[in-house]
Amino acid sequence: MAAAETFRLSEVLESFRRCLTQSGDLELEHYLAGWKGLVKFMGSLGAVFSFISKDAVTKIQILENYQSGENGREYKTIQSMVKYEVDHKLVDVKKRGDHWDSGCRTLLRLHRALRWLQL
After folding, report:
1. What are phi and psi of 56, to 5 degrees?
2. Crossing angle of the two packed helices 9-19 and 28-44, in degrees rounded to 10
3. Which end is more exposed in the chain, N or C (fewer Cβ atoms within 10 Å of the end residue's Cβ)?
4. What is the pLDDT along the chain (119 residues), one digit of tens a residue?
5. Separation between Cα atoms, residue 10 and residue 103, nearest integer Å
6. Among candidates 30, 33, 53, 34, which has minimal Cα distance to 42?
7. What stretches of 1-119 show up as alpha helix (H) in DSSP?
C-alpha cells in the first residue's frame, strides 16, 4: 500500500471533529475528508470490503461534484444541502422518485455503508 493510501485513525477523527462548526452545522468538506479516510481503512481490510469501498467512493464523488457545481455554495454544510434540496424539490420525501442521486439520498447511502462497517 502506498504511503498516500495509509490509513490513519487520527486523520479520520480530526476530519470528523472539524466538520462540526460552533453553530452546530456540519461542514460537508470535512465530513467527506473523514469518509475518504474510512475508504482507506476499508481498503486495508482486503477484497471482502472492496464493494463497500467502491460504493462509498462513488457517493463521495457525487457529493464533491455537487460542491464544485453550479450551486456549490448550497452544499457547504449538510444542513444547507438539505434545505436547498428540499426547498427546490430535489428530494422526494414521500416516494422513490426522479432524484435518486440527490445529495440527501447520497448522504443516506453513505450512512448505510457505515452500518456495514459496524458488522
Report:
1. -65, -40
2. 160
3. C
4. 444 478 888 999 999 999 999 999 999 999 999 999 999 988 888 888 788 889 999 999 999 999 999 999 999 999 999 999 999 999 876 666 676 789 999 999 898 888 877 75
5. 27
6. 53
7. 9-19, 28-44, 50-68, 78-87, 103-118
- DSSP class of residue 20 equals B
Q: Under a CB-based contact definition with an 8 Å cutoff, are residues 38 and 12 in contact?
A: yes
Secondary structure class of 26 (helix, strand, coil):
strand
Please answer whether residues 110 and 59 qualify as being in contact, where contact means their C-beta atoms are separated by less than 8 angstroms.
yes
CA distances from 7 to 27, 34, 42, 99, 115 (A): 22, 11, 9, 33, 19
Span 22-48, pLDDT tens digits:
999 999 999 999 999 999 988 888 888
**C-alpha count within 13 angstroms, C-beta hemisphere, residue 18:** 14
SS3 6: coil
